[in-house]
Amino acid sequence: MSAIDRLLDGIAVPAVVRVRQTFERPRLEDPVAELAAQLKAKGTLTGVKRGHRIAITAGSRGITALPEMLRTLAAAVREAGAEPFLVPAMGSHGGATAEGQRNMLIGMGITEDAVGAPIRATMETVEIGRTAAGNPVYLDKYAHEADGILVINRLKPHVSFRGPYESGLAKMIVIGLGKQKGADTCHELGAGMMAENIPAMAAVTLAKANIIAGVAIIENAYHETSRLAVLAGSEIMAGEPALLEEARRLCPRLYFDSLDVLVIDEIGKDISGTGFDTNIVGRYHTPNISGGPRIARMAVLDLTERTHGNANGLGLADFTTRRVFDKFDFANTYPNSLTTTATASVKIPMVLGSDRQAIQAAIKTCNIADKGTVRLVRIKNTVALDEIEVSESLLGEVAASRYMTAAGGPYALPFDVAGNLR
Length: 422
What we know:
It contains 15 helices and 15 strands. The chain is of the alpha/beta class and 422 residues long. The strands form three sheets. It has an eight-stranded mixed sheet with strand order 12-11-10-9-13-14-1-15.
């Protein structure tokens, strides 16, 4: 038995209770049909001519029904007599390589067969103008050569800064379509300038490139499409801020002000740019944002398959597992951090041999006298918060909340013989 084993062996992992959290739940029954209807009603593609080549953005986030929505956009372009194609629009993600970005799309089910349009991936960009502050603005080479561009993205609060334009269409135009060079320019002065840089740079692209329209997606806390809005290119900057506020209102959360231990089963770029939504757990990699619950110790147990070894966000945790460490792909993770200049999120926390030890280490170090009263929550990830597990010490707060309901009695976490959760 190692010294680590001896220190952790006697730390009891508390029994947990499954708890259902409830959130506001507006949703579209058929978002794909809604998209097709809005495209037609607004005459979005009336200016598209036969033979035109139309670029459609495809980002790195796990947006519900995104492959189907992309297919709908591609079909509408073909119906107008033009030729659609997809461009990976994800800044420096995918290891800042064309092949890496193509693979990210394929991993999310966004293939040429599924969407009905070819994927044209490149990291080459064209400088199309400069902001009043002198910042160059870049555009994906294939998108620049196209006769028009359709932008689609989910709107939600950003994990690094606050402003009227956070994660949404303007950011997709500047950073997604700007590729690594555009992302690098926008992030160069840090997150504190992002609220200024994104709209300034997006305005240049909208003035210089033919952004036909943007499709803004809002999801509810259950990862369902709650609203979809097709905005003409000229409407994006005026329309996005109000949509962002609606998205902010619908975000999921944990209904606890403080916790001793938070256990996250998985993080990944398909979930959030920082692997998990920092707003939900109250841990941030920049000084430009705050809020959320106070969490003494946090353990991350695994990476999603779709993140392809990108462990961005891991550095904000206190403990992780050997499994995560072995999956950590530096070449696929570090380009994003080098581009954003946010280095805290890619540091390596304490690595333990199993899920059980990572949780035990978090309990041991959370600085409470009676470990039997540990306030512990376990979640799958930060987009699946309708069902969580909580230690018995939190049941009083659960009972007092109109947003939480215990679903059954306490049970032990199901560890296998290796100490990993089944």
